[in-house]
Fold 5-methyltetrahydropteroyltriglutamate--homocysteine methyltransferase.
Amino acid sequence: MSQIPVATLGVPRIGRRRELKFALEAYWAGRISQAELLSAAARLREEHWLIQKAMGVTVIPSNDFSLYDHVLDTAVMVGAIPQRYGWDGAAVSLDTYFSMARGSQGRPAGCCHAEGEGVPALEMTKWFDTNYHYLVPEFSPDQEFRLVSTKPLDEFNEAKALGIHTRPMLVGPVSFLKLGKRTDGGDPLALLPRLVPVYAELLRRLAEAGAAWVQIDEPCLVLDLSQDEKRAYAFAYEALAAAGGPKLMLATYFGALGDNLPAAAVLPVAGLHLDLVREPEQLEPALSLLPENCVVSLGVVDGRNVWRADLAALLDRLTPVIASRPGRVELAPSCSLLHVPFDLALETSLDPELKSWLAFAVQKVEELVALSHGLTSGREAVQSLIDAASRALASRASSPRVHDPLVEGRLAGVTPEMARRSVPFSERRACQRERLKLPLFPTTTIGSFPQTAEVRKARAAHLRGEMSYVDYDAFLKRETEKAIRFQEEIGLDVLVHGEFERNDMVQYFGEQLSGFAVTRQSWVQSYGSRCVRPPIIYGDVSRPRPMTVGWARFAQSLTDKPVKGMLTGPVTMLQWSFPRDDVPRETVCRQIALALRDEVADLEAAGIAVIQIDEPALREGLPLRQADRSAYLDWAVECFRLASSGVKPETQIHTHMCYGEFNDIIDAIASMDADVISIETSRSRMELLKAFRVFRYPNDIGPGVFDIHSPRVPPLDEMAALLRKAKDGLDRRQIWVNPDCGLKTRAWEEVRSSLANMVFAARKLREEV
Ligand code: GLN
Ligand code: ZN
């Protein structure tokens, strides 16, 4: 039997050592030239192709690389470049590309806009249910498309010159349009007939260059689709088939095709990739519907998580599939490997046992290659690899680090009362007013104050062992005290300690909770040059000791004003980590909630009267399919309540969410029953509040009055006007005054002026009643 092909669908483009990040940032800072950036990018592509080839990958992708984002690349490729970027219709310059990605304010020489004028970037949003962000393509109603860049062709040729025959990867035309938006609010899919010819031309040119196959990603096929959308798929792929060109491997991922399967199975493509990790059950129905000669790409290794695969079980499962479709099966990860860290070998902070349970991108490729060998030449050929995987799995399944009977017992003992405050909000509000004695329109912030270079330097020095714990602690105390004095001076009503001790709102807790491991080198691209290191949740979660109480108590000891205790919520911690895959997500989330519940109790006992539990990721955890959403929201809300409901009525619970779109989840938000919720509303000019108004949201709300993403200091009158707009339709006693989000990325001078204006705006409103 000939070797079963192994595909990767895409590799982590940021590079083994985040080379792309450093090259981009050097270029943006003017330290390297465009030519240097481009050659760094070319070196990375070459390295990634060669690694894959050396490892035995037979279907090596090209065009999975991007300088910023592959959806942005697609927009540029087809000429979807909004007018504000001043594009002249010729080749798109790197500066235009990056101003679409990042806006052009503060761009160095070469930018056509006068200082300070600036052009906003395209909107950025999460890529399906991942923590990767893509740039949202923007179409005008009379949008024309044409092949403006030949990046896929260029990169195919680049690999060919290295002697590597690749399968170029494209974002499919239907998903591309569906992920974008039209400036007139119309249906972007109406533009499909104009877009398809551009794809057809590109495919023809790829075929001329010698491409045998193209991977065309249509992840929107796992979403709920209307009849019209299904028809759009038929239209697009019939047109592409008619145009001639390479064979198409239609890639779907992040879920099941479900009710779209019949429509997808009849598309005239030569191959279909299925995510068999998220939905193993879809293989058999797909096999029975797909035409005999269609190649099936089996996404059997988890591209979204870091756990080692069960090679023995996979071999059992795949053997009959291979036998039934000789020569028409490929092996692949469930989705592109973009979403996992590069190589486990780089990670030095994890102990060998935990490490033996993990597989990052490189290890996942090894798994796929081993499966291919085992299926082609018989198990014996890879017996030692199978055994090693089985041993690791057995050790993980029985490890006392994974299973903590105390945690499991406690979870089993959770009662509905534990997830309910002892009295309703109206009564709590009265007790809290009595205790806190806050003015109308109370002012506060979201938690973090500037993480200056000095703060980051001190942390790094402490981490390297160059600054003692005592000195580091003293430094953080001084910063905290400065923040408290600053807030008193400005006249804020509810203070925060400033979060100087936190490197990241999830990692900080991950470092302290049992069942979590944090990493040093395991970066995953979040957007552009920004990478995150999601903690790994490997076992039952518990809290060995208080995590934030010391800082809260210290900060409170400095002032008579209330200081908020600051926690990251259970859903956000789950969402921004790699969770275990041996129990349901909701179980992991409940365990985190119980650990936080203890923290909340300790904060209350330490005299902290206001506790904020941030849940900025609650919405992004929403399942992709409507039918799964209410079950998710039920447990997500329950977890928040479990964490927050153990306190007395006079303890005030806040929550915070940003980047919100609240209409479809407003009832879930209301049932979280936080005494106060702060949200990001300034950029929408309070539009997002509408959902709360319509719902008659009963508890208190702090609509953000200034954008923390911008260095701009908003004038007092602007914020006062926003507040007047906010109180319209809500009870003025419901309204808090705060920025959109934390201030960690801002400079102190901006923060000083913005917050001073904000406090004056609140005073002005008080005078107006
Ligand atoms: N408390 C956090 C901060 O102020 C909240 C950050 C967030 O919502 N992403 O930074
Ligand atoms: Zn926020």
The longest helix spans residues 34-55. DSSP finds 27 helices and 20 strands in the chain.
